[in-house]
Specification:
This is RNase adapter RapZ. This protein is of the alpha/beta class. Helix content is 41%, strand content 18%. The two termini are 47 Å apart.
Length: 287
């Protein structure tokens, strides 16, 4: 089991770190009182396959329970449970700006000065910072770069291409899929709907596929789609995306879009890309 403890200064990005860890398959718990760490570890040890990667966000919101963290860390060491500690920090100017933008008070001094709260928190977390395995200064990191910094440590030795790619065919009559990252319109291509023997078939049928792809413009268009997708997927991976939805639409979502979606899915799979395929209008079609 991989256990990571995410901690650090308030406003330094613990919530974003938790979201990033969830994206790469970690089971995350926010603000777990440190006193419960031993009990939690005992519990998940019975379901080690389900909880193979765990991240716990621990910080001063735990109040008087926070000081129990050191006893809990000793428990982990004494029981040979390996763990990493990520400590997040930022300079005072950036932290103060983030508190102001969020209109939040500092958790250590809810009725007092934010700057004083930051300094007190630094003092309180000094020992924990010294114990940490990874220290990340988020002062000059946007969300994308922050995720890259985390993945630099936590995707080592793992398959880097862990982005979920979905290819979806749809009909413009029923609207574009809301979660689309990229939309291709194939309505300008020859429509099998007007061929009597093809009208009631779909792009899952070989006859329809052969008809759609027999035109030079269909072949050229598909080649351009492939070139665009091949260019964008590595960029999305570098950015740290975990999902990429490619939607291909025609008028009714029965013939041309299904044909193109099938071809693109086959292309991705033949190039060792993990991909999912959904024909939205066929899935919703009444039998």
């Amino acid at each position: 089991m991989k256990l990571t403890i995410i901690t650090g200064l308030s406003g330094a990005g613990r919530s974003q770190a938790m979201k990033a860890m969830e994206d790469i398959g970690y089971y995350c718990i926010d603000n777990l009182p440190p006193i419960f760490i031993p009990k939690f570890m005992d519990l998940i040890s019975k379901n080690i396959r389900e909880f193979s990667k765990v991240a716990l966000v621990i910080d001063i919101r735990g109040g008087k329970f926070f000081d129990e963290l050191y006893n809990s860390l000793d428990y982990l060491k004494n029981n040979n449970i390996g763990f990493d500690i990520i400590f997040l920090e930022a300079n005072n100017k950036v932290l103060l700006k983030r508190f102001k933008e969020a209109r939040r008070t500092h958790p250590l001094l809810p009725e007092g000065s934010i700057e004083e709260g930051i300094e007190k928190e630094k003092e309180k977390l000094y020992l924990l910072r010294e114990m940490s395995h990874i220290i990340i200064d988020t002062s000059n990191l946007n969300i994308s770069n922050f995720k890259k910094e985390l993945y630099k440590y936590y995707l080592k030795g793992e398959k880097k291409d862990n982005m979920s790619i979905s290819v979806v065919s749809f009909g413009f009559k029923k609207g574009i899929p809301l979660d689309s990252d990229m939309v291709f319109d194939v309505r300008m291509l020859q429509n099998p709907y007007y061929i009597e023997e093809l009208k009631y078939l779909t792009g899952n049928d070989k006859k329809v596929q052969n008809y759609v792809m027999k035109f030079p413009e269909s072949i050229k268009y598909f080649e351009r789609i492939v070139n665009m997708v091949d260019f964008l997927i590595p960029q999305c991976l570098v950015e740290g995306r975990t999902q990429f939805v490619i939607a291909i639409g025609c008028t009714g979502g029965q013939h041309r879009s299904v044909t193109f979606a099938n071809k693109l899915y086959d292309y991705l799979r033949s190039n060792n890309r993990e991909a999912n395929l959904l024909h939205r209008e066929l899935a919703n079609k009444k039998v």
